[in-house]
Amino acid sequence: MSFINYSSREINCKIVYYGPGLCGKTTNLKYIFGNTAPDAKGKMISLATETDRTLFFDFLPLSLGEIQGFKTRFHLYTVPGQVFYNASRKLILKGVDGVVYVADSQIDRMEANIESLDNLRENLADQGYDLDRIPYVVQYNKRDLPDIAPVDEMRALLNLNGVPDFEAEATTGRGVFATLKAIAKLVFMELKRSRTSSST
Amino acid sequence: MAAPETVIFEEEFARINLVCDRLRSDANAQVVFIVDKNGQLIAASGETEHLDTTSLASLTAGNVAATGGIAKLLKEKEFATQFHEGEVSNIHIQIVGQRVILVVIFDQRSSLGLVRLRVRKASDELNKVFDTLVAKAQQPGAMKVLEEITDEDIENLFNE
Ligand SMILES: Nc1nc2c(ncn2[C@@H]2O[C@H](COP(=O)(O)OP(=O)(O)O)[C@@H](O)[C@H]2O)c(=O)[nH]1
Ligand SMILES: [Mg+2]
Fold first, then answer.
1. With CB atoms counted within 10 Å of each terminal CB, which end of chain B scores lower, N or C?
2. Which of the two residues, A27 and A51, has the higher pLDDT score?
């Protein structure tokens, strides 16, 4: 849930990068971290295993600029992708304002993609959220690799609702900021919408 | 949608800061801070210049969330208190009113007993403040800043 402080004039939001193990969630955050001005970011924290697999979460605080005289900050989180970390994934979704679903474009990862998307929907429902109603974008990552599925096919499998989606190559950064901008926009549109419609 | 946003208004922000300052001095602590359960830092008091409070806030909330997950598996409602003892610094983590987390960092100039005692008192005060905040946030106009967001605002966020 967003956090608004009228005294320090700031609005903070929480974005979660979700997706199967090794799809490139941590790489997205690393690229954002490496390509953001020092004064617009905090430390990136990775709670990882010794082999660099995300154990609990990665965390990256970002400043985006001002809205109505309020500083806006985004807290980016990734979840651990491996199936057995589901309890942790659930916890990280608590209070989420927007979700980026990162899919691995490699053909042999399609099943893992679908499984992870189903798991996202279930875990959100557990927290009282509906994936069809929250700010949500999809990223097809690893477009540089040889054995990848065509985007149309991935869209038909993973993006039935036609939310904004992006091809990406997180290692070089292609599509990374486009994805982030899209989710940030949706989050602010939803903040505005939820306020202007709740009074009726 | 699930839970309402955390909203802090000036008056309550001042009261929260006051509680933090008083707790720090009453408990002889180095640092006191308050975090919401989603990891947002609400207030901090003490020697925070050399501390990465944003990271501390996020990790504390992650820690509390994980401990809450363990509680659930054991069919406990929550483990409201955590204490970690280091060689120099100690950290006392208290869930207040099931909604915010009160963190006290202290060294040998204080003691666990004293911190506990003072945290209890501060928790009561914080509960009152957060009750007020919840009521205020539900009043019309409370989220004015959100209502007034324009499409241009959103576009401009990235055009720097
Ligand atoms: N070729 C290629 N490799 C990638 C891309 N994105 C991530 N990787 C690699 O995939 C592996 C797993 O990435 P990581 O970000 O740790 O995955 P996570 O489990 O989703 O956090 C790492 O070796 C990355 O370098 C990409 O777009 N192209
Ligand atoms: Mg990872």
1. C
2. A27
Ligand 1 proximity of A171 Cβ (cutoff 6 Å): yes
Q: Report CA(A79)–ligand 2 centroid distance (Å).
A: 7
Question: Do residues B112 and B120 make contact, with C-beta atoms less than 8 angstroms apart?
Answer: no
Q: Which atom of ligand 1 is nearest to the CA of A27?
A: 15
Find the CATH number of the domain harbouring B89.
Answer: 3.30.450.30
The count of domains in chain B is: 1
Inter-chain touch B4–A94, beta carbons under 8 Å: no
CB B45 within 8 A of CB B27: no
Instruction: Output the CA angle A193-B42-B75, nearest 5 degrees.
Output: 85
d(CA B134, CA B80): 21
Portion of chain A with pLDDT greater than 70, in percent: 98
Tokens of A34: 């490496």
User: What whole-number distance in Å separates Cα of residue B17 and Cα of residue B20?
Assistant: 5
| pLDDT of B150 | 85
Q: What is the pLDDT of residues A62-121, one digit of tens each?
A: 998 898 899 999 999 999 988 888 988 999 999 999 999 999 999 999 999 999 999 999
* Contact pairs from chain A to chain B, CB under 8 Å: 133
